[in-house]
Design goal:
mainly alpha, 5 helices, elongated
């Protein structure tokens, strides 16, 4: 039996960029922020309604975040939600030039 070789492709660490998304870096950043919001909700066992009562952010927004429906959110809005949940965001940026 003949085995076909499979080429293994290594990702960049950003699935959105790897899939050719136009704003892959921004989408990755929004996903990271959303994951931190979800971690905070889970850590404190907050339902979306309890999170709404605590922060004033609509329960529907917390549901969208839990469902990774992030199209309506900007980075600054996600950071504001993290702040209202009692955490702060520290950002470190590394710029890499694209290979020509």
């Amino acid at each position: 039996m003949k085995r076909e070789s499979l080429d293994v492709l290594r990702g960049t660490g950003n699935v959105f960029r790897d899939l050719g998304r136009k704003n892959g870096d921004a989408e990755q950043f929004k996903s990271i922020l959303a994951a931190e919001i979800i971690k905070s909700l889970d850590k404190e066992a907050l339902t979306v309604r309890a999170a709404h009562q605590r922060t004033g952010i609509a329960a529907a927004d917390f549901s969208r975040i839990r469902n990774a429906d992030l199209a309506r959110f900007t980075v600054d809005r996600l950071i504001a939600i993290i702040n209202k949940l009692g955490s702060r965001v520290e950002i470190k940026i590394r710029i890499h030039k694209n290979a020509a």
